[in-house]
Specification:
- The complex is a heterodimer of chains A (193) and B (568).
- Helix content of chain A is 26%, strand content 37%.
- By secondary structure, chain A is α+β, with helices and mostly antiparallel strands.
- Chain A is elongated.
- Chain A is built from 5 helices and 10 strands.
- In chain A, strands 5, 6, 7, 8 and 9 form a 5-stranded antiparallel sheet that branches.
- Chain A folds into 2 domains: 79 residues, Alpha-Beta Plaits (2-Layer Sandwich); 67 residues, Alpha-Beta Plaits.
- Chain B has 568 residues and is α/β, with parallel strands linked by helices.
- Chain B has 3 domains: 170 residues, Thiamin diphosphate (ThDP)-binding fold, Pyr/PP domains (Rossmann fold, 3-Layer(aba) Sandwich), CATH 3.40.50; 159 residues, Rossmann fold, CATH 3.40.50; 172 residues, 3-Layer(aba) Sandwich (Rossmann fold), CATH 3.40.50.970.
- In chain B, the strands form 4 sheets. Chain B has a 6-stranded parallel sheet with strand order 3-2-4-5-7-6, sandwiched between helices. In chain B, strands 12-11-10-13-14-15 form a 6-stranded parallel sheet, sandwiched between helices.
- Chain B is globular, with a radius of gyration of 24 Å.
- The chains are: A alpha+beta (193), B alpha/beta (568).
- At the A-B interface, helix 1, helix 2, strand 4 and strand 10 of A face helix 6 and strand 9 of B.
């Protein structure tokens, strides 16, 4: 029986860097009524291939729908639900927090404890940068709320599987894009032979 | 060095490379350079001018379904392109290979809301398998090559290529690509895993009450013979989906017709009572299953489909089999044991006899009703030697119930999207693709009027299409829902119809209105014996409804049947 537990899944998708590709992906999320919590997209190590990490809530079966439907998009090169694999999972946040002479020291202590850093200082505010698993980002934010958060931006979850993953793949884009073109015979119209 | 070709030339020459000899379209400003190249270079491609672009996309769809080849339609930017959308959505839902080529405003005007600009790439995204916007002529040959490859391979579907006017006018050295580079798309013909086949065979061999549900995927894989071998070897009754009608001869003793909302009662009983269901090339949609949680409650379901995303989409599947229908059946056949299932088959036959007793055709009445017309059409076409293209509604269900399809691809119908107005243009495409075939349009009076202007295309192309309208003066199926679920509050369903025979005459098409049951067969014969097109207007009894009927969201076990009081 498939796992019916409703939980958060971390999914990585490798996308050909073609026009409208993000539009195709998000359009599919909305059309298929998939519930996406966060989505991050950027360059991968392979030119021409973007790497997207997203977090979706659902059962194993829900996520199977998400991944198989996404995989049908022509520009989706590969997709992997890495929820059950050992992975480094991180999020980055920039938090502008109210800080004056009275509170600055206390905030800096928190920054230290969370191994975050102060990346900008102004007379009455600080910008704090934190890179950590989401739970730790959440808890730092909760503490900083006591001082007053003026602005915040979070990247959403990104993930990378440690070492070689369960099926032996290393989850790099090259192995899926370094394929030979498919030769299609002339006058190929029609699939009846 | 090869000579320079314009984008327009590249389009036509690519189509020719793909074996395309007919394009359904309607020109306009942004696609005119391409049309001009057709004229200037006299390419051997027949352009069929349509009256409305929706007709063009339905014609490409009908052409594709009738022939198994890829249908091509063409339109200009803006409204030309948006008018194609209904036909593309129809093709997408029913997995029909179609390539649509649209003109777009020049690249320099993109995004400026210029005259006849519409973002058809974004608009068509959810109703196409893939699409392209070409702003640079260097991208054009690959896009066209890929479009045809994507449309016809794997699970087929429509692909749209939107081409800026400036690209059509630009020039480049052209050689048609020999291959495609699509790292995210590898639609290899999949032979399913040996273990899965073993498990499938074991389930079928151990089944006491097995049923096969065959869909259009069987016909697409040309696996009708293997399907029949499987059914006959193990004596398994075969139901089809609506799109699967014709994949298994409905006159075969093992045929149990088709199931679902308006399927035969005995078929639904069999689907609900079976212990193993072997569904192949059917996507098991809500019209077949009724409420998902109530469908085939006693069955372990084996689902064979090319598309992994269909596995478990609607139902909990015991054994998912991802693979091509033909390869799956071939692998399975040697492992399936001969079997008799006498008790199960006799149970089904009991249900069948009971269904026949309740059937409208066993009723003695002089009323002209559509089921009678359909059965007469079946007789008149030498027991089903014709292709029937239906619209959507009551007549569609009656056609599928009473015309006993025995040939693959002999029923073309919009099953998934349920597009009224499909029949006439799709029949035009089908007739152009299969000129020797006897093609019948079967439409309701509502749907026929949606695309009726394509009668001029019938005349323009000199097509011998026979048309029948099941005319009951209502949007019949909607009226039926009002009967059953809205206490007969007929809002928006009574029709003010034209005289269809006079309409046909205005196009130069002969026609005949029929009001008497006794004239039906002879009228059909008259249509057949008339050279060229003919229109029959069957003015049928107004309030006849389609039975059985399963209310949406209900179980197939709770059918409303003829003569049964309706309680809701």
């Amino acid at each position: 029986m498939p796992n019916t537990e409703y939980r958060r899944h971390t999914v990585i998708a490798w996308l050909e860097d073609k026009p409208s590709v993000l539009n195709r992906v998000t359009g599919l999320f909305s059309r298929r009524n998939f519930n996406i919590e966060s989505l991050n997209v950027g360059h991968s190590e392979t030119p021409g291939v973007s790497r997207m990490t997203f977090v979706a809530r659902g059962t194993e079966r829900d996520l199977q729908q998400v991944t198989t439907q996404l995989d049908k998009l022509i520009n989706v090169v590969h997709i992997a639900d890495v929820t059950n694999e050992p992975a480094v999972v991180r999020e980055m946040a920039l938090i502008k927090v109210t800080a004056d002479n009275r509170t600055r020291g206390e905030i800096m202590q928190l920054v230290d404890i969370y191994r975050a850093s102060v990346v900008d200082v102004d007379m009455d505010s600080l910008i704090i940068q934190v890179v950590a698993p989401e739970g730790r980002v959440d808890s730092l934010i909760k503490l900083l709320e006591n001082f007053g958060i003026e602005e915040m931006v979070r990247t959403g979850r990104v993930a990378m599987v440690r070492g070689a993953s369960a099926n032996g793949h290393r989850h790099g884009a090259k192995e899926w894009t370094a394929v030979d073109p498919v030769v299609v015979e002339k006058n190929g119209n029609g699939h009846r032979s | 060095m090869s000579e320079l070709k314009t984008g327009g030339q590249i389009i036509w020459e690519s189509l020719i490379h793909e074996g395309v000899d007919v394009v359904f379209g309607l020109p306009g400003g942004a696609i005119l350079p391409t049309y001009d190249d057709l004229y200037k270079y006299d390419y051997p491609v027949h352009h069929v001018l349509v009256t409305h672009e929706q007709g063009a996309s339905h014609m490409a769809d009908g052409y594709a379904r009738a022939t198994g080849r890829t249908g091509v339609c063409m339109a200009t930017s803006g409204p030309g392109a948006t008018n194609l959308v209904t036909g593309l959505a129809t093709a997408y839902m029913d997995s029909t290979p179609v390539v649509a080529i649209t003109g777009q405003v020049p690249r320099t005007l993109l995004g400026r809301d210029g005259f006849q600009e519409a973002d058809i790439r974004a608009i068509s995204m959810p109703v196409t398998k893939h699409n392209y916007l070409i702003t640079d002529i260097r991208d054009l040959p690959d896009a066209l090559k890929e479009a045809f490859y994507i449309a016809r391979t794997g699970r087929p579907g429509p692909v749209l290529v939107d081409i800026c006017k400036c690209v059509q006018q630009a020039t480049m050295e052209f050689t048609y690509p020999t291959g495609v580079y699509l790292p995210g798309y590898r639609p290899n013909k999949l032979a399913p895993d040996a273990d899965v086949i073993r498990r499938t065979a074991q389930l079928l061999n151990e089944a006491q009450r097995p049923v096969i549900v065959a869909g259009q995927g069987v016909s697409m894989a040309r696996a009708e013979a293997e399907l029949r071998q499987l059914a006959e070897k193990a004596n398994i009754p075969v139901a089809t989906s609506l799109l699967g009608v014709g994949t298994f001869p409905s006159t075969h003793p093992l045929s149990i017709s088709w199931g679902g909302m308006h399927g035969e009662a005995y078929c639904n009983f069999a689907l609900q009572e079976c212990d193993v269901m072997f569904a192949i090339g059917a996507r098991l949609d809500d019209r077949l299953t009724g409420a998902f949680s109530t469908f085939a409650p006693k069955a372990r379901i084996i689902h064979v489909d090319l598309d992994p995303a269909e596995m478990g989409k609607n139902l909990t599947i015991d054994t998912p089999v991802i693979g091509d229908a033909l390869l799956t059946l071939r692998a399975l056949l040697p492992q399936v044991e001969a079997n008799e299932h006498p008790a199960w088959l006799s149970q089904i036959n009991e249900w069948r006899s009971e269904s026949i007793q309740r059937d409208i055709l066993t009723e003695e009445t002089d009323e002209l009703v559509a089921p009678y017309v359909m059965r007469q059409l079946w007789h008149a076409t030498n027991q089903g030697d014709a292709t029937i293209v239906t619209d959507v509604g009551q007549h569609q269900m009656w056609e599928a119930q009473y015309f006993n399809h025995t040939k693959p691809r002999s029923l073309l119908t919009s099953g998934g999207l349920g597009t009224m107005g499909y029949a006439l243009p799709a029949a035009i495409g089908a007739q152009i693709g299969s000129p020797q075939e006897e093609i019948w349009v079967v439409a309701g009076d509502g749907g026929f009027q949606m695309t009726m202007p394509e009668l001029s295309t019938v005349v323009q192309e000199r097509l011998p299409i026979k048309m029948m309208i099941i005319n009951n003066g209502y949007l019949g199926m909607v009226r039926q829902w009002q009967d059953v679920f809205y206490n007969k509050r007929y809002v928006g369903t009574p029709l003010v119809n034209p005289d269809f025979v006079k309409i046909a005459e205005a196009y130069g098409i002969p026609g005949r209105a029929v009001t008497d049951k006794g004239d039906v067969f002879e009228a059909i014969r008259q249509a057949q014996n008339t050279e060229g097109p003919f229109l029959l207007d069957f003015q049928v009894e107004e309030f006849t409804n389609v039975y059985p009927m399963v209310a949406p969201g209900k179980s197939n076990a709770d059918m409303i049947r003829r003569g049964q009081p309706v309680e809701f």
